[in-house]
Amino acid sequence: MSRPLVVLAFALFVVAGLAPIGVMFARIGAGDLAQIFEPRSLALLGRTLSYGLGVAALALAVGVPFGFLTARTDMPLASVLRPLGVVPLFLPPMILAMVWTVVADVRGAPAAYFVSTLGTFPLVSLFSARAFERIDARQEEAARLAGGRWAALRCDLPLVVPAALCGACLAFVFTVNDFSVPDYVSWIGTPKFNVYADEIFATWKIDNQPGRAVAISLPLVVLTLATLAPALALRRKGAMASLSSDFRQPAPIELGPWRWPAFAFCAALVALGAVVPVARLAWEAGGGPRGFDVEHLSKAFSLAIERGREDLQNSVTWSLAVATLCVPVALVLGHALERSRRGRWLEPLALAPIAVPAILFGIGMIVLWNHDWSARFYDGAGIALLLYSGRFVAFPIVIASGAVAALDPRLEEAAQLAGAGPASRLARIVAPALRSSLLGGWVLVFVLALRELDATILVPSANHTAMFRIFNQVHFGRDDFVAATALILLFLIVLPGLLWSLFARRRLELLP
Amino acid sequence: MTAVRLSQVVVEANGRRLVGPLSFEVGEREHVLVVGASGSGKTTLLRAIAGLARPASGAIELFGQRASDGAKLLVPPERRGIGFLFQGGALWPHFCARKQIGFVLEHTGCPASERGERTRELLEWVELAGFDERMPATLSGGEAQRLALARALAAKPRLLLLDEPLGPLDFELRDALLAKLGELQKRLGLTVIHVTHAPHEARGIATREVRMAKGLLDGAVAP
Asked: Residue A418 is nearest to which of B86, B94, B107, comparing CB atoms?
């Protein structure tokens, strides 16, 4: 491993990902900690905990069957439904909330549970599907010979459970740290559904007390880290098991008369999470309740582009730049995490930007960079790039380290014996072998940066994005061009995955 | 001249002793078979000689030069003049046959103008002429293993380490590869340390056989 490269990559990670967190925790005063134990904070924490656990359980309940049916059975159109099932994960949760609160006329807690389950079940299904297809055919056949299909399923389940639980842990983390869905479903009427992330935002925004905001975020940070730790252990145990060279792909399981009911279940999930939201937005953009027509739709798109051109451009260029910046850093650090002796101990540090609520991260950026000496940087696009890089670089790092774990170390050793230096081995042996994972990391950062809202809200010069424009406009009324802007954003979000699935032969690896 | 000398070498991992203390010498142009059951420490021994596993204590000398002293690597793996045929080949999945060899030649200072010719020569040695653009996934077990051998020889090593080179091959291919190994060893004047759990197959070309059990050498026996 190249020490200068690792030091450089780590320095970038510290500046972008750790410094905003460190500077915030330094602000906590002794009196601030008392706020954690105030009845209001404890009640919100309890509600957030049950919200996260409930969504994770629901995501497990629908994600495991979806993963199984699309990856291992002869269900009709399984190969089409499988990639479509990932789309809800990519859609901004607030847009899902925007759609479902009007389509189903639900508000408050039921809306938050429903929308968050739709947005996070793909995490469970992705992990489960990969685990199901990594079971060697001979293991399954041995179980079938012993006791038929049920014996095979009983043999498969323990191999899939760690991966599914890893997905559920991530669903929990995404849910408890999300601010936009509870905020939206509470904003448009009763019943309110305030969660802990709201409280952090309110403490900062209304009280303007960074120390207090950080102090009350501590339970959430602990909760998130406590969930990510088992998620990573489960990933190592189940989701990331590498395939032996004589691996035999299991044959699809024949569902017989259950083929079409299974199809209906999976198609319904895809419809709820992707098709209905897109269709509803298209309907709104085309005139909605006043009557849909194509001319209206075209005008709405023209208006959306005219008003939001600069924000859309910012969203795309910033997301492209951030994804491209994050991947080389992730390659170096992901490799170092897996191959160095102290790597395992540094993993929690790499996860810190994910563990900290986005709102807190945004506040940290302000505290760190809002000074006279850094005013030019703070007022420019650089702060947005730094904010998104710091928030999201952890994802490609974890994906890359997972891929390195599955990479035969002898490939690097053979190159080392040939005289290839650490940088050359990384660029010419490791990176090509990790191509699918690195591209997966790139796509993930691009998508997450495009849909980022929670931290963007706080940092003024990062406000000029399409997602922020939608957030702002939707609070002032549901005009047709808002729906059109959301559709343009959704198109941009799914574009890389769409292009990949159309033209690439390999599968995009989005999992750590 | 002594090609390899190990003095009281101990290799540990996670606080567990894998090999040693072990002292062992291999003369130049010898072909030594190291035999033993799975988990006896054979591969770890090869990796320590190559510098890929760091000994906890003891010294390793290669061709009269101290290569490691305790945990200190005095000569890095890439400067030890070693060719390593890994178990299973460990071919780089994204490089065709030509690039597998070209990569090694590039890093061992072979001028670009000579690489094509040298690659052709190496592929001919292992009877893979015309396989230049073939990817590892399209090769049979025997072809992949011969390509891995060509790659191991590309750096013109003085010492060749073979880790179960016949493992994945059927009987006919084993005989062919052994014959090729014997021929190349003579032609190139190589010293070979050959790890296997099936010694009867390689006795024809070996000059000596040593047995390993639980990380220790049981003593030398005549091949």
From this structure: B107
